[in-house]
């Protein structure tokens, strides 16, 4: 595996970990009436290569599972993230 592949995969891993922890924080705040993380921020992290982290947060934490736009939007963002990752691997010299 070459250097660019390692860098891109580390970047994607870090973004997904951040996205998962954002879901975890928001889930914890939901039960305590503290200030919540907006759905727009969650979608931002999903669009910024963190869609798998958000999706795993939905499945594992059962968070945002009643929102139809999460069930539709996050899988679409997974496809978008994979397409961007493949294009980056192909086009990055």
Please provide a written account of the structure.
With 93 residues, the chain is mainly α. It has one domain. Helix content is 83%, strand content 0%. It has 3 helices and no strands. It has helices at 3-32, 39-61, 68-91. It is elongated, with a radius of gyration of 14 Å. It starts with a helix and ends with a helix.
Tell me the number of structural domains: 1
Cα gyration radius (Å): 14 Å
Number of strands: 0
Mean pLDDT: 95
Output the helix-strand order. HHH
User: Structural class given helices, strands, pairing?
Assistant: mainly alpha
How far from one another are the termini? 15 Å
Low-confidence stretches: none
Characterize the overall form.
elongated
Write the layout of secondary structure elements.
Layout: H1 3-32, H2 39-61, H3 68-91
What are the salient characteristics of this protein?
single chain, 93 residues, mainly alpha, 3 helices, 0% strand
Quick synopsis:
The chain is mainly alpha-helical and 93 residues long.
